[in-house]
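Our working data are protein records whose layout never changes between entries. Getting from the letters to the tokens is the skill we practise here. To make this concrete, we reproduce a full record directly below:
***
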Amino acid sequence: MTTLMVCSFEDPGGAEAALPVLRHLIEEGRLTIDDASIAVWPPRARKPSTQSLGSLTGPGELWGGSWGVLLGLIFLAPLAGPVFGAAAGAFAATLADVGVGDDFVKRVREAVTPGTSALFVLSGDADADRFLTAIDGPGLTVIRCTIAQRRLLAALGEESPAPERPA
């Protein structure tokens, strides 16, 4: 199983400021991540801007479009509402099947709002804990869920998912 962790910061530059810590832990061999993405939501913007970061040392487990779909469902589905309709509902049900439930999505929407930023990280549980210990501080909100990575990749359209990590 894999952990999907969202580290939300109270300012638009907080997630970017955490990246050197993450990179340092990876370069030292103390941390391995499968993939990461960053979301920055300027104070007066309608939606956040997102960027796929890969594993920070190379390509990640998700392709950029997968992050786009996942983050789009989290941030844009409430804005789109009836435009996506049943398709968004069906896809949300699929995400719930892999561990990304409505409660997780709701908590992310509450934490990542205009004027904030967030770092989305896919990793094993132990790696997630090491990273959180290194960046813990005021203004940090952490939201985690355990996901079935192979099923998530399949749901997001990845053709050849990587093997699951041992539990």
In short: The two ends are 6 Å apart (CA to CA).
